[in-house]
Specification:
The protein has 22 helices and two strands. It has about 500 residues and is mainly alpha-helical.
Amino acid sequence: MEHLPVLQVVIPLVLAPFCFVMARHTWLVALAGSVLSLVCSVLLLIQLLAVGTVDYFVGGWPPPWGIELRIDLLGGFVLLLVSLIAALVVTWAHDTVESEIRDDQINLFWCMFLLCLTGSFGIVVTGDVFNVFVFLEITSLSTYTMIALGRDRRALMASFRYLVMGTVGATFILIAVGLLYMMTGTLNMADLAVRLPAIQDTTTVRAAFAFFTVGVSLKIALFPLHQWLPNAYTYAPSAVTVFLAATSTKVSLYVLLRFFFTVFGADYVFGDLHVDYVLLPLSIVAIFVASIIAVYQEDLKRILAYSSVAQIGYMTLGISLANAQGLTAAIVHMFNHGLIKGGLFLAVGGLCLRIGSTRLSDLRGAGRTMPWTMGAIVIGGCALIGVPLTAGFVSKWYLVIAALEKDMWYVAVAIFTASIIAAAYVWRVIEHLYFQQGYAEASTLRSEVPLYMLLPTWLLIAMLIWLGIDTDLTVGIAERAAQSLVAP
């Protein structure tokens, strides 16, 4: 049990090279790695609920001299989300990977998937700011490769655009890390939090904060730095789209939370620098602009991609409120949105496998030929809107409460209005699936996906309903995590 933090990273890292050198059965190796990672994250979360924070000194060297792995409740919550999505994606993805990736590149794909998983875990567990950058790059480089492996030639351009913007973001983060090290002489997060208050008014520290904020905002796809996201989601192989949409931006958002509240401190970020003056308007604009753009898209993947940009706006909106309720809402929505987009894109991947297209014009009538897959899209869409008794409603409700606590009634109005716009683009999808006739309905070949693909999809959809009714797990953990972040 004491080695769980390092095992979380080591297991997928060790198994990744096996996928690369093996000619067959690489899917089974990836499945074993993701399932073992899920077991580790569940055991870690149980331990965190009991003790609060887990520290692990790599090689027995105490910080700040050695590398420290430090996991709190927020980190454990994110680890659970990433490992759960990874295990379900690998279980689901056998046929879609074989249909969308060249046979001689499948082993490379699963190797990159496990490396991406390694990087995501490493970002969460490390207590060292430079290692955050290292693991971010591991995640990013493997993601660029996975996107480019798709048969669609447009995936290459999507990967290149993501690479360019991701490299800019990584460079900004590295500059910030260098400036902080120059001023403090340490890379350990806890040590930085102790040393920064004495020098936080210097130009160098403020420049480091600015570089870091912009760099991570690129990784999060915060409006208007989101240009890489729609094409990456649309043209990537289906398994990559699911994993990216459900986990990638959430892990980057975790980095933002960790630096804002642990390294720099909430008083400095929101009290001295007034970051909320910029973050709050950008979040509201993201919610409205991305939702409106989604209404006019003709491809289901692009609709959900722009929806993700809007949903990221909800999360950063909760952070910008800078109170415990707002942080609780942001953390809950981070987890719930991962489940929502995971379930939706698993269903969309089934459409790609059976119909071969995600354009709305090609999906007319598919609701009658693939009822279980389409049913998952309908319920996932309701959660995306925030219909009561779904997980999406819970996080939006907490956002409204947090806004009203600060007398920001206009923010509550914006949330309700944006939910109506979300209902518009979800209804467009439902209309094409159920109320129009087309090739998808007429073809006898367009049958339901296999049971092993339906089960992971409906497990996530069932969780959306369960977590919309019983909020003890998500809200309980999020409240404790938020209190620890805002505590002086």
